Amino acid sequence: MSRHSIESGYISDEEKTFTTEKIIKEDAKRFQKNFTIEEELIKSANGVIYSGFELRSGEPAIFKQIPKTSINNFVSYKGRQIPSEIFYHLKAAEASEAVVKIIDFFERKSSFVLVMEKLENVTDLYEFVGEMGPLSEEAALFIFKQVIEAISELADVGISHRDIKDENILINRETLQVFIIDFGCASRTGLSSNPCGTPEYWAPEVFTETEVETEITDCWALGAVFYIMLTGSWKFENNKVTRNFVLEQHLSENIVTVFDRLFHDNPACRLYLSDLINMF
């Protein structure tokens, strides 16, 4: 098995260093001692995903390399500065069993590396619905309840995910158990003046207001995920969602009412996490 250089994707003449060279060297030794990279899986502007192994146990792991050039926010954690993505992922994993667990993290000269558990027999919800087509209300509700509970558990400790979408939800093909990933946009709950995430899943007010409430915008995105599961459709253009009422004809009246509330133009009239928990 060949070893893959995890720095290969981000070579720069102007590498950013946010901590001491000593910590970077110690992290490099610790990484080499404990992990090996096998294969590059996905590459984007915001990170590279690799598969690999933990050397001592032989257990598979997933590695996310985050280039320092893409990191906007750092948080103090155990005497060092780390990306807010890693910080909120750590805290979220402590708060909810439905968050993919972090095994370790490391700093390199031009990037941070996040090591996570590798889940078996999972795909993301986008691929799952693409393969299966629109789900039955029973199946969709089973999945949706898990997602609501996970996001609510994060809110209970003051965390908003802020990039809820089908691609950030992993699902076990057999058990339908779900896992939340990607905390690159996560923040404290409350008012935010910094739009983040995927515009197709933003609530309309994110485009027009200087500040928005993170919980209610997360709930809008939850509604989008639920809608996709039940209809296989999501069309959001010009700051407005276009519902497919033909595809909604097979839905129960209660579910249609939920969508009416989740996609209300006025944020104050929408359902909150507590409402969703009580309803489902």
Automatic annotation (TrEMBL):
GO terms for cellular component: cytoplasm; host cell cytoplasm. PANTHER family: PROTEIN KINASE DOMAIN-CONTAINING PROTEIN, SERINE/THREONINE-PROTEIN KINASE PIM. This is Serine/threonine-protein kinase 1. Transmembrane segments: none annotated. Belongs to the protein kinase superfamily. CAMK Ser/Thr protein kinase family. PIM subfamily. One of its GO terms (molecular function) is ATP binding. Its EC number is 2.7.11.1. It is found in: Host cytoplasm. Residues 35-280 form the Protein kinase domain. InterPro entries: Kinase-like_dom_sf, PIM_Ser/Thr_kinase, Prot_kinase_dom, Ser/Thr_kinase_AS. Keywords: ATP-binding, Host cytoplasm, Kinase, Nucleotide-binding, Serine/threonine-protein kinase, Transferase. Gene3D superfamilies: Phosphorylase Kinase, domain 1 (3.30.200.20), Transferase(Phosphotransferase) domain 1 (1.10.510.10). It comes from the Eukaryota. PROSITE patterns: PROTEIN_KINASE_DOM (PS50011), PROTEIN_KINASE_ST (PS00108). It catalyses: L-seryl-[protein] + ATP = O-phospho-L-seryl-[protein] + ADP + H(+); L-threonyl-[protein] + ATP = O-phospho-L-threonyl-[protein] + ADP + H(+).
